[in-house]
Amino acid sequence: MNEFFEKIKGFFKDEEASFEAKQLLEENWHKIAPDYFKKLLTTLENAVYVLDKQGNYFYVNQTAANHTGKALADFAGKNIFSLFPELKGTEIGRKFQIAIEEGQSFHIQQQFPPMNHWYDLRIMPTDDYILVIGKEITSQKTTEIGYESVLKKNRAILGSIPDRLYGIRSDGTIIDYKLYPDFPGWDFLELTNKVVFSHIATLFPTSLVPKLEKIIFDVLETGESSTLEYSVEGYHSEKHYEARFAKTGDSEVLAIIRDISDRKKAEALKNEFISLVSHELRTPLTSIKGSIDLLLAGVSGELTNQTKSLLNICRKNTQRLVRFVTDLLDIEALDSGNINFKYKTYLLSDLLQSSVDGMRTFAEQYHVLLNYKPDGTESYVYVDEDRLNHCITNLISNAVKYTPKFSEVLILTELNEDFIQIQIKDNGPGIDPNFQPRLFHRFAQGAPPKDKLVGGSGLGLSITKGFVEAMNGKIHFLTSETGTTFIIEFPLEKKKRMAAEQ
Predict the structure, then answer these.
(1) For the whole prediction, is pTM greater than 0.70?
(2) Alpha helices, DSSP H only, in 300-455?
């Protein structure tokens, strides 16, 4: 009241008139104030409810009516629980009941049942009334709930990933993203007073820190990912890890660290197996094959036809085992990088002619003709002769097996500006679309033709791809219901290089 009087006392002509007006205002304030406050409350953006001590509505502003979806007239003299019976048994209803009966104040955020909107409510009882001021926070609450839901899902996803995930800043500071999935970023460190940071020197072996600093710098500069393998001595055994680094910001890289100890053990076992195959199988098989060849050549005397037939079966299966062992050794050599290539510049047509001629007898067994069509140009490639011959003969062998009898396999070359293509085309049924993604995988074999028995280890195309790519080439295929074409591309070499090497 005094505030109101201070605003109007300047309108009175003297002190006596001002005093009389103040007395009059005090005597009638209870009549003036409700209208005064009502006008004031209509200007508020918040919802305002005034209830008497029995819970009956005494006043609501228009904002409050809008929030509840009712008209102002609907509130007049109505009890809160009769107007909104759905409040009974809810948290809001219990708070109102306590405020009415015990005069206790509350601050609560809750959904209001009629419209399922979220409100921030302050319930403030006085001697005669209960004042409620509310603000709609549906948008804010939806964002919070959505954020919490996403955060919960992210925690579950991160928790299910066996790898460790770290954010590393350019100065070497580390944040563990599995512990702090809601980390807002390095630009908001003032909001992260509960986050515990570490440093690369505490996460990685000390001897690796200089190398890691260079890797982080290079990743941030170039944007290209990098991988590092390292080991740490444990209590019982050595632990092996693989760390992958990728740029995720102007001054941050993401480090994904995986325990590869089991993989290293498996690789060691594989190497031991390969060594066993090499020493315990390859050498005896070679001896067996040689002995069979000598017997078939008549070294031990004349053989009966039945004996020759049995020995030929032995020879054929021995050759198959030798090829399988050789394929295993080639795969191991490609994986380990221990395979040696003897590069030289060759005239491609000479290499292809030699490979095709060597496969003609094989093709005749399947009643298939090999048709080689060179492009007539002198194209030179820088390759390993034996490895390229291995690739060509393997592709021709596959093409022959899948080509119908009394048909042909076409081998041709096509010259482009910077590279030469070797194309091997069959007339088979094409490659099953479901199998195509696994075509170059190890031990993967497609369905054989109905009229042929197609054997093999399923390693041939995987080895061919490895050899071609190791010789700086590319391999791909085109397929349809009328046949498949395998295409190998090699960069062209200049004659002067060939001349310099001779």
Answers:
(1) no
(2) 305-336, 348-365, 385-402
Cβ within 8 Å of residue 350, ≥6 positions away: none
**Contacts by 365-370, CB closer than 8 A, 24 or more apart:** 366/400, 366/401, 366/403, 366/405, 366/452, 367/405, 367/406, 368/400, 368/403, 368/405, 368/406, 368/407, 368/408, 368/409, 369/407, 369/408, 369/409, 370/396, 370/400, 370/408, 370/409, 370/411
pLDDT digits (tens, 9 = 90+) for 99-135: 888 888 988 887 766 567 788 888 888 888 888 888 8
**134 close to 47: Cβ distance less than 8 angstroms:** yes
In angstroms, the CA 337 to CA 364 distance is: 37
Query: What are the φ and ψ backbone dihedral angles of 62, each rounded to 5 degrees?
Result: -65, -35
Contact 390, 428 (CB under 8 A): no
How far, in Å, CA of 433 to CA of 438, rounded?
10
In order, the DSSP letters of 413-464 are: EEE-SSEEEEEEE--S----TTTGGGTTSTT--PPPPTT------S-HHHHH
Helix (H, G, I), strand (E, B) or coil at 263: helix
- C-alpha 332: how far from its chain's center? 28
Provide the CA 34 distance to its chain's centre, in angstroms: 65
Query: CB-based contacts of 454: which residues, under 8 Å, 6+ apart?
Result: 401, 402, 445, 448
Backbone angles phi, psi at 316, to 5 degrees: -60, -45
